[in-house]
Amino acid sequence: MRIGFSLPQYGVMAQELGKLADFARQAEELGAGSLWVADRVLAAVNPSVGYGGTDTIPWQMHAALDPFVALSVAAGATERALLGTSALIAPWYPPLLLARSLTGVDVVSGGRLIPGLGTGWSPEEYQGVGVPWKERGARLDECLDVLEAVWTTEPVAQHDGRHYAFPAAHIGPKPVQRPRPPVYLSGFAPASQRRAARRANGILPVAVPVRGSAFDADAVINQPLQQVRRLAEAEGRDPAGIDAILRINPTSESTMPEIADIVLRTADQTDVDHVFVDLVYLADQGVDHWLELLQQTLELKR
């Protein structure tokens, strides 16, 4: 089981760039198998949609370091840990610029990028970046088309899409990973599952520790993954080629044994072999505290 952790990207640590490099380096030395970032541009004071089914957005998300900056710092501070995004909100970005940024991370890290993409949940963030909320699915689909073309062909053919267009062009460098980095998609709605079945290498389910309740690996991992694999087979794809990376989202009340229980049940009851722990709700505790929790999690798993 590969166990990863989020980078200190949010809250007070969003302005402590030097500590981010130290965290990445020490996390890898302690045994972290991957390091992860997310994507935020604003936290609305009065959101129309709150985070995680609530009416608000956690204060930790009031400040967020740019994910590409965080990944670049981590790439320079580490040698082995994979570098993931869970998830970049792909419709916010012109696809050529997103391809350039993702390729850059893959190149400077020596081929360690795991791009996880999604559509997000905040209409106000779409308003802030000037992208219509109702176009998010169509823009993600077109973005996947462009990424595939840029990463796997040379020269890249002319693209005339609904939202973006560019002429036939030489676009380099190419990613280190061949034929391209593995793309993971988030989302749980039927349309998201169908997209993952057609386009993705895997999905990004989420588990939240619940006090007094055992982790239900079937509901969170097995059933969604089996559904996407069935849909992929119907599309003519090999269902075995689709996997999952589980994000564990502890709350500020979660305990280390609860986190370890999810890791162990995932290892025992699913065929998923990669999880990561998102420490965002501990953003006020400092890097040293994060490293302590990271070490405790790895020790409990062992």
From TrEMBL:
Enzyme Commission code(s) on record: 1.-.-.-
First-level EC class: oxidoreductase
Keywords tagged on the record: Flavoprotein, FMN, Monooxygenase, Oxidoreductase
Domain Luciferase-like stretches: 14-267
Source organism superkingdom: Bacteria
GO terms of molecular function: oxidoreductase activity
InterPro entries on file: Lucif-like_OxRdtase_Rv2161c, Luciferase-like_dom, Luciferase-like_sf, SsuD_RutA_monooxygenase
Protein name: TIGR03619 family F420-dependent LLM class oxidoreductase
Organism, as annotated: Streptomyces chlorus
Taxonomy of the source species: Bacteria, Bacillati, Actinomycetota, Actinomycetes, Kitasatosporales
